[in-house]
Fold each of these.
Amino acid sequence: GEELDSEKVAAQAGKKMQVAALKKDYRSVLKGWNVVKKSNFVPANGVNLGEVVLALQSFKPDKDFVVREVTAFFRKHSSEFGIDEMNELLEILGRRMDSGLLEELCNQMPDLDIEPNVRTYEIRMQLQFNLRDFHEVRALDVQLEAEGLDRSSRVWITLLKCALKENKFSEALTAFAHCSGLWKNSSDSVAPD
C-alpha cells in the first residue's frame, strides 16, 4: 500500500525531472528533487545528479549547500549510489570546469565510504589539465600511485599532453611509450580525448 505509493510518487517525480531538465526548467527540476530526496526509493529511471546540481546552482549557487544536498542523497541511497554514480557527476562537473565543487565532492568521498578509482583520477587530471594547472595534474598522479592504482591510457595521455605543453620531451616520450604499450596490449579501444 503505502510503500508502493511512495515508490510511484518517486518514479513520477523522476520522470517530471527528466522532462523539466530537457526544457531547462530548473524550478521544476528542484520540485522533483525535493520529492525524490525525501523518498526511500530511487526512481527506476535514475536521477541525473548533474541536472540537479545545475538546478541547485541556478537558484542557490552556494557550493557548501550543493555539497550537503548531494552527500545527503548519497548517504541515504548508499546501496544504489557509489563510485560509478559519483564519477558520472564528477565527469559532468569536469566538463563544466567546476573545479571547486568537483574537488569538494572528492573531499567528501571518504565520509561516504566511496573509494576513488582510476576513472576518478582521470576526470580530475583532465580538468586540471584543461585549467592549465600542470602542477596539480602531477600531484594527482602522485596520489593515484600512492593509492596503488595503475595508470590508465587516459591518465598517460593527460601526462603526455602536460609534458608537451611544458616542453618536457623526455617525459612526453615516456608517457607516449606507456600509452602505446597499453594500446598494443589491450583489446579495448581507448581513443584519446
Amino acid sequence: SLKFAAMKIPGYLALLNRYLEAKRPQEALGFFNGNADRRNYLEQIGFGNVIDHAYGYIYMDLDKFDSAQKYFSRAKPFFEKVADNTSRMIFFNHLSLLNVKMGKYSTAVEALLLAKQTAEQANNIEWQQSINHQLDSVSQLAGDYKKASYFSGVSAKLKDTLNTLGKEEDILQLQISDEQQRQDRLAAEEAEK
C-alpha cells in the first residue's frame, strides 16, 4: 500500500542500496520491478531520473551494458543540469564505472572529469582526491601515461592535504581538551577556597 508513501521513500532507497552494496543486482532488479505502484509514485514525485540511474547501475552490475547505457543516457541530462553536487558526482562516477567495464576508457575519463569538476565546485577535498586517484587508474587503462602521472601527483598532493588537515584537527582537539581541563582545575580550586 502507498499510504504515507513519502515516508517510505528513504526505506525503499536504503533497501535498494543494501542489495547493490551486497553485490546482489538481480535481487535489486526484482525489488524495483516487483512493485509498479512504488515505481510510478517515485516517478510522479520527480524521482524518475534517480530511478533511471538506479536501473542503469543495476544493469551495469548484471553486465547488461546496452540496457545500462540506455538508462544512464536517459538520466544524464538531469544529473548534468539539475542534480545537487553529491548526486552529480556519484552519477558520473557510476557512468565512468560502466564505461570502464565496457572497455571505453576515454569515455570513462570524460565522465570522471565531470565528477572532478563537481568535486572542485563543491570544494570537497576528499572527493577530489578520490576522483583524481580514479583518473590516474583509468588514464593508465586508456594508455595515457602522461595524464595518469599528472592525476597521480594531484591525488598524492590532495592526500597530503587531507592528512595535514587531519593533524591540525587533532591538535585543535587536544588544545580544546587541555583548556577544558584547565578550566575544571580552576573551578575546583575556586570551590575549595
